[in-house]
Amino acid sequence: MTTKKEILKYAFIQTLPVLFGYLFMGIAFGILLEEAGYNFFWALFISLTVYSGSMQFVLIGMLGGGMGIIAMIVLTFSVQCRHIFYGLSFIEKFKAMGKRGWYMIFSLTDETYSLLCGMKIPEELDKKKVFFTVAVLDQSYWVIGCTLGGIMGSFIGFDTTGIDFAMTALFVVIFIEQWYGFHSRIPAIVGICCGTVSLIIFGAGGFILPALIGSVCLLLLLKNTIIKEEDSQEVCQ
Fold this sequence. Notes:
This protein is an all-alpha fold and 237 residues long.
């Protein structure tokens, strides 16, 4: 039987890329929130309850913009609706986790989703506990980063231009790990093509949802081909 320490150690190693990305992005959020007039207690509270990198940055403008509740709901849905697609592939797995499944739904960020999809968990480790530990660690990194940013913003003034590149670098690392971790290149190629085409057609502000829809549709059509390719590669090894 595996111990909690072994599960924590494995989960921590897997979440190291997220640790560095979330700390820098969280600090950037905390600083910007403090500059908007909200101290680090607000940064702590928002990161615990909202826990959405992109939406939290949007929230800074919403707090002082006098936006109506309906407009807030519509904007939030448009920004976060991509998570609908993330959750579809984990419905049964989260159901099997019992009460912890509710937290998994709440904590399914872009980065956590990428890790859960890409991890090859050793057979001796409890998969459900590993999933839960990864989710908790990822949020703890974000909470710590946001709170530190709020505290730092109260005492230190500096130019934060370019700090958001930490998240871009995080996604590049995760993409490279998954590229080498899976035999089939079809999912990665489909994602790149759909993202590029959607970016050209819809622009940077609205390409995510069309890209996700296109990727899901194409991957469903190519599902059998991907499975056969993975199986054939495993047999060869």
